[in-house]
Amino acid sequence: MESGGALDQLDPQLLEALQLDGRTPFSRLARRLDVSERTVARRYQRLRSLGLRIVGQPVPDRLGLVRWLLRLRCTPDAAGTIADALARRPDTTWVTLASGGTELYCALNTRSADERNALLLRKLPRTPHVLSVSAHCMMRIYVGTTSTWHATRFRPAAPAVDSGAVAGRSGPLTGGSGTPTVPSGSSAASATPLTLDATDRVLFAELARDGRATLPELARAAGRSPSSVQRHLDRLRTEGALSLSVDFDPELLGYHMATQLWLNVAPAHLRTVGETLATHPAIAFAAAITGPSNLVASGVFRTPADLYDYIDGHIGPLPGIQSIETAPTLREVKRLAPALP
C-alpha cells in the first residue's frame, strides 16, 4: 500500500536501510530494496507523516563530552512536570517516565564539572517533589547513541546495505541504532576530542532538524560552498563525531513493551555481557555505568511475555549476572535530541 493504511513488509525494510545510513540517496535505497525510486520516495514521505525523523547527533566521546544517566524518584503528582522541565534543557538527549509514574530517567551530556555540578548538586536537589537523584556516568556505550529500536530485528527480511552504497561518504558505517562503528571507549573514541568550528556547529544544528538535509540546503545555512560543506561532513563522519539515528515510534511496528534493564554484573564478565547484549535485536541501547548497577540497557518487546522470554532465555544464561531490575517505560517525554553544549 503506497499511502495510508497499515505498515507492510517494505516499510521496516526501508527503516532498516535508513538506520544503516540515514543519508543514503533514494536511488540507492531503491536498488537495494528492489523497488522503484518513486516508491521509496512515497514510502519515506508516508513514514515521515507517521513521525519518522532522521536525526544528526554528536558522538559525546569524540567531542570531549561526558555522558550521564540520571535516575530520579519523584512524587506522583510532580514527575510529569519535572520530566517536561528536563526535556526543555538543551543538554538532555532523552527523558522517559517509568515505574508507576514516580521514576524518570534522563540522559545528558556535559563538557565540564561545573556544568555537571550545576544540575546535580544545585538545581535538582532543590527541586520540590524530587525524592532522590542518582547520577551514573556512562563509561562505555556498547550499542546505541539513543534510538527507539535496533535495525537487525528486521535483518532476515531486508537486503543489506553495503558501505559502497553511500554517495559522497568516506566515514564509517553506522550500526543498527545510528552509532558509529567506532565503539565508545575504544582507543579511537578516547583520542583527543575533535575541535569544532562555526561551520561544524551549523551542520550539527541543521542535521538535528533534518538528517537528510541536502548539500545545497546545508551550504546555504552555513554560508559556505557545497564542496566545503561536504569536506566538513566527511571529516565529522570519518572522525566518528557525527551519528545519524532513526526515530520512529516502535508501537507502530507492533512493539508495545519498552523496558529499561538495570543489571549488576560481576566485573570479570562486564565486557562480555555488554558486548553480547549489543548483538541482541531486542536491545537498542546498552552501556557500562557507575553505581550499584554497572550495566544498563533499553529493550523493545512486543508483549510482556516476550520480555519474560528474553530475560529467561537470553539474560539468564549469561555469565556473571548477579541481579536484574526491570522498569517498563510509561511515556517517552524526549528522545533522540541533540545535546551539544
TrEMBL record:
It comes from the Bacteria. Pfam families: AsnC_trans_reg, HTH_AsnC-type. Keywords: DNA-binding, Transcription, Transcription regulation. PANTHER family: LEUCINE-RESPONSIVE REGULATORY PROTEIN (PTHR30154), TRANSCRIPTIONAL REGULATOR AZLB (PTHR30154:SF34). SUPFAM superfamilies: Dimeric alpha+beta barrel, Winged helix' DNA-binding domain. The keyword DNA-binding applies. InterPro entries: AsnC-type_HTH_dom (IPR000485), Dimeric_a/b-barrel (IPR011008), Tscrpt_reg_AsnC-like (IPR019888), Tscrpt_reg_AsnC/Lrp_C (IPR019887), WH-like_DNA-bd_sf (IPR036388), WH_DNA-bd_sf (IPR036390). It comes from Streptomyces lienomycini. Residues 196-256 form the HTH asnC-type domain. Residues 164-191 are annotated as: Disordered. This is Lrp/AsnC family transcriptional regulator. The keyword Membrane does not apply.
